[in-house]
Amino acid sequence: MPAADALAAIRARIAAAARTAGRDPGDIELLAVSKTHPADAIAALIEAGQLAFGENRVQEAAAKFPALKARHPGLRLHLIGPLQSNKARDAVALFDVIETIDRPRIAEAVAAEMARTGRRPTCLVQVNVGAEPQKAGVAPEATAAFVAQCRDAWALPIVGLMAIPPAELSPDPYFAMLRDLARDTGLGQLSMGMSGDFEAAIGFGATRVRVGTALFGTRPRPQADQP
Ligand SMILES: *Cc1c(COP(=O)(O)O)cnc(C)c1O
Fold first, then answer.
1. Phi first, then psi: what are they for 29, rounded to 5°?
2. CB of 18 closer than 8 Å to CB of 24
3. Backbone angles phi, psi at 57, to 5 degrees
4. Per-residue 3-state assignment (H helix, E strand, C coil) for 122-146
5. Could you give the C-alpha distances from 106 to 6, 91, 183, in angstroms and in order?
6. Could you tell me if the CB of 195 is within 6 A of ligand 1?
């Protein structure tokens, strides 16, 4: 399917899900997850009008996006994969949004880079909603305290929460959990929902859905840290 058709189809599904939920489709942002896909596939989607992209590895994004960003100044890049503190410098330099703040060491490293460079990507806290040992994210019951710490100790611009529900279960209770945590912490942005469940996520209040496969097709190579 040509990129423009795939994009139009996803946008239509987002709009329909929003209307079903009694929400304004304009309140839901589509993040195109371009991990593993080459720059020319990304360029085709940019050509079709998509400007927000998600990558889960700093190094891969650093190889693909600086040239695209130079050509398309409106492009916005989100980090949606785990961040190591030794990559904080590259992440703050390259990304416009960091969705995976999940522990003090990372919050501190990102804040230090922001202070050093003056660049301030907005940040989301990733919550491990399923309490899965192999998955990144702060524990649900520790979220409120961690959000407060990010603001008070490091003055991080935290604007929302992000989660990847357990793969084999219905995501609904986990979407509801993230929605409630965001409400309790006074955060407005909810990044949740992927190719298989973004319509359900919109029903639970997602303000950003992260869609890879349904836009780009199957990923060319498997990834160990894929959800
Ligand atoms: C890969 C990935 C997605 C997109 O998954 P699809 O099922 O391909 O839509 C969304 N969020 C995160 C964090 C990812 O790593």
1. -95, 140
2. yes
3. -130, 130
4. EEEEEECCCCCCCCCCECHHHHHHH
5. 35, 11, 24
6. yes
Q: Which residues, 6+ apart, have CB-to-CB distance to 16 below 8 Å?
A: 199
Q: What is the mean pLDDT of each run of 10 residues along the chain (227 residues)?
A: 93 98 98 96 97 97 97 97 96 98 98 98 98 97 98 97 96 98 97 98 98 92 52
Helix 104-117 to helix 143-154 angle (10° resolution) is 30
- What's 17's DSSP letter? H
Ligand 1 mean position to 227 CA, how many Å?
A: 7
Based on its alpha-carbon atoms, the radius of gyration of the chain, rounded to whole angstroms, reads: 17
Convert 160-178 into a string of H (helix), E (strand) and C (coil).
Answer: EEEECCCCCCCCHHHHHHH
CA–centroid distance, 192 to ligand 1, in Å, is: 10
Burial of residue 56 (CB within 10 Å: 0-12, 13-18, 19+) is: buried
Of ligand 1's listed atoms, the one at least distance from the Cα of 56 is: 15
Distance 116 CA to ligand 1 centre (A): 31
CA of 149 to the centre of ligand 1 (A): 28
